């Protein structure tokens, strides 16, 4: 979930800070794992949201960061098919065979945020849907693979862009990754396109999300009247994956590793 709120400077986190983020990230990833068997035809996105909320609050003893954030009403963002991001769970949205859906969750534990999202297939996806989802995951991992001290955010964005566009897909430009820590959305903004060697130079202790949104058609977007749900303007399918990462001494650490290693 993107916000316009900004901080003045990018301040690296201490090892103790990152340990707390590691805990929050593990909890966020756990939510996505426990949802996996429930993502099936006939289930509403409202039901998925209820399961996630109860797990975060009652089992993890944590806080669902999205609830009430800038007016957002739910725990999850559930973005189905042509929805790019920020889809609002509701009882009337019933998953059907062939759908692809992104579920995005952020958990606050002891004041620190863990933010992650992943794609799910509902039943059997189309050939295009599967290829889009797999390509978007590969693009995210290529971007994360470029993270290490001394490289730039332009290197990260370029790595993502190369994978997505080589497959004939397009990168959404209006929404991006972000710094994260005690604040949900802070600097830097992490674009999923760019030129190598440009932008912020990375240093150990920086923490941010890499979360490319990739469209099967053109990159243009439209926001629905609810003020949140973002869809593809040409009604093409869209996919997104997201991890929170930390810059380490010689590379990166994924702070939101999925328990099933997806």
Your description of this structure?
Mean pLDDT is 95; it is low at 3-8. Helices cover 26% and strands 24% of the residues. With 262 residues, it is an alpha+beta fold. It starts with 14 loop residues before the first helix and ends in an 8-residue tail after the last strand. The chain has helices at residues 15-35, 45-59, 127-145, 153-166, and strands at 63-64, 77-80, 83-85, 100-109, 112-121, 170-171, 177-179, 186-190, 207-210, 213-215, 221-223, 230-232, 238-240, 243-247, 252-254. Helix 1 (15-35) crosses helix 2 and helix 3 runs antiparallel to helix 4 (153-166). It is globular. Strands 1, 2, 4 and 5 form a four-stranded antiparallel sheet that branches. A three-stranded antiparallel sheet has the order 3-12-11, with no helix packed on it.
How do the strands and helices of this protein lay out in sequence?
Layout (H helix, E strand, L loop, with lengths): L14 H21 L9 H15 L3 E2 L12 E4 L2 E3 L14 E10 L2 E10 L5 H19 L7 H14 L3 E2 L5 E3 L6 E5 L16 E4 L2 E3 L5 E3 L6 E3 L5 E3 L2 E5 L4 E3 L8
Antiparallel strand pairs: 1-4, 2-4, 3-12, 4-5, 6-10, 7-8, 9-14, 10-13, 11-12, 14-15
Helix pairs in contact: 1-2, 3-4
In terms of per-residue confidence, which ranges show pLDDT below 50 for 5 or more consecutive residues?
Answer: 3-8
Could you report the average pLDDT, rounded to the nearest whole number?
A: 95
Q: Total strand count, please?
A: 15
Radius of gyration: 17 Å
Helix content: 25-40%
Number of helices: 4
- Biggest β-sheet description: 4 strands, antiparallel
Distance between the termini: 21 Å
H/E element sequence? HHEEEEEHHEEEEEEEEEE
Structural class: alpha+beta
What percentage of the residues does DSSP assign to strands (E)?
A: 15-25%
**What coarse outline follows from CA principal-axis ratios?**
globular
